[in-house]
Every structure is written in structure tokens, then in C-alpha cells.
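Review form for a predicted model. The reviewer records the input and the model, then writes brief findings.
Reviewer: anonymous (R2)
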Amino acid sequence: MKRKLIHIVSGTIILLGGFLFTVNLWAQASEVTHIAFTSRRTGNSDIYIMDIKGKNIENFTNHPAWDFSPTFSPNGRWMAYVSDRDIYLMNLATKARHRLTEGRSPDWSPNGESIVFTSSRSGQSNIYKIDVNGEEIQQLTNEGSNGDPSWSPDGESIIFSSNRDHGIFLSVYVMTADGRRQRRLADGSSPVWSPDGKQIAYILGIAGSGVYVMNAEGKNSRRLTPENTWSESPAWSPDGQWIAYETELENPWGNLNRDSNIYLISPIGDKSRRLTDHPALDSFPAWVPAGFLSVSPTANTQTTLWGRLKKSGSD
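Model under review:
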């Protein structure tokens, strides 16, 4: 059988032998090509998915309930999210969903077996862990008010926010995955680990709060987002090259109709790039795993094309 070769050049795929295919390869170095986020652009809070140029935006939940805070299984086949006050799981291939538990701020474990989340079921806001089958739940914190949990890439630790030491002011804490050895790292909130586990992005500040990065021990903190702007909800790309976040540039304080949008910035602090531009609130960005392309109806055309090209290249 005649062998065909595929050459990738600056946004095009050239199939040697007479065929030319053009596709979007903006994120050529990474297989992750979609970002999920929450938006109120229809008057209701729903979860949307867009490509990493901020194009091809689709309402993914489209439900009367208020849906927000998406997080994805490592294989890209399931999405956990909050609907009103409960955490749901959605099969991305069928969009069938079922309730998992009461709570908010879910984050999927790296092994795909558990979800860590925040709940006030005991009267105080605490961190819990639940199996994805819903059969076993464990309370991990019991001191102060706690939230914003995030797994380490190796699944051994969880970082979170707590006010246990400073009253109304939040600090970043770390603990083992079973809730032991809880210790404070730094002032701040909404912490998330970098994919290599060496850095933590988080939020710091009251007036003009912004996205900061520090090392895993809570040292060498530096601000990424511009001064005197309001930014939050950082989310690392799986290759560690970008941080997605939400920001409000126009009158963030005292704005009853806050219209934050989703931006990208590199962890070295280069100029940020705007992805959404809508007068409604866009928030809670989350990177969608590469496996999403194999199950999402929105990506079928691109996935089929790429699959055929790879098969052709191996003939």
C-alpha cells in the first residue's frame, strides 16, 4: 500500500499526495482545544464551551437551573458541575446527568475516582471528598470556614482556602488527600496547582484583587494580572503554558451588573489575551481535557477529520 505523509505547517495540515486540509492549530503544542466557562448571557447561568480562540461558543447545559463551576474527569468523558446547590455529573457523550451530592466548588481527582468539594451540611463551610459513584463521603476539614479545594497533580495533596487564622481574611492551606497535616502556605484564596505541581496560582487582595503565582511551598509570590484590576478564578492549562481567569476591567467595585470576561495569560506574566466579550457575566473558566473531542457532538467534524488524517498517515 502506498504510504502517505502528513506535514503540519503553521495552521494547516498538508496531506502529501494532493490533498490540503486547513484546521485550527492555535494550540498545536497542546491537545487541549476547548475551555468551559459559566455565563449569564441568556439571563440564566449556564455552562458554555468555546475553543481556545474564544470562538464557536456553545451553551452546553442549557437548563432552567443555575449551572456553574465545571470540572472534568481526566479522560474527558464526564463533567461535574454545580446546579443550584447540588453537584451533578454529566456524561459528555449523551448529556445525561445525575445528582451526586449537595455542595459547590467541585474538583475532580487526577485518578478520576473522587471529587473534592465544599459543603455547609454541618453548619460550617468545610471540605469533603466523595467517590464518583456517590457511595462514600469523607469530611476533610473541621476548623474555621473552608472552601475552594484543588487536587495536586499527583493526587497526594489538596490545597484550599480557609479563614481559621485571620477571621474574614482568607489564607491558602494544604493538606494530604485524607485531610491530615493541614498547614498554612500564604495569604490568599482560590488556589490551583500548576500541572507539574511546582507552582500555585491564587487570588490575593481586596481592592484590585488579582491572580498571583507562588511556588508549592508558598514562597516567591508575584502578581500576573495588571494592578488596579479585579481578577479571579485562575485555571491552569494542562500543558502549563496558560492560565485562564475572569476579570472585570470596567468599574469592578460597586458594579451591580458586573460583566467580567474570560482572559488568558502566561504564567510568566506576558500581556493577557481576551477570549470572551459579552455584556453579561462570564466566569469560572475550566480547561476541557483532550478526551472531550472523542465524545463531544460539538467537535465531531474536527475529530473525524483528524482521525482520518492520522489513519491515512499510518497506511
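Findings: The domain at 32-297 is CATH 2.120.10.30 (Neuraminidase).
Further findings: The mean pLDDT is 83.
Recommendation: see findings above.
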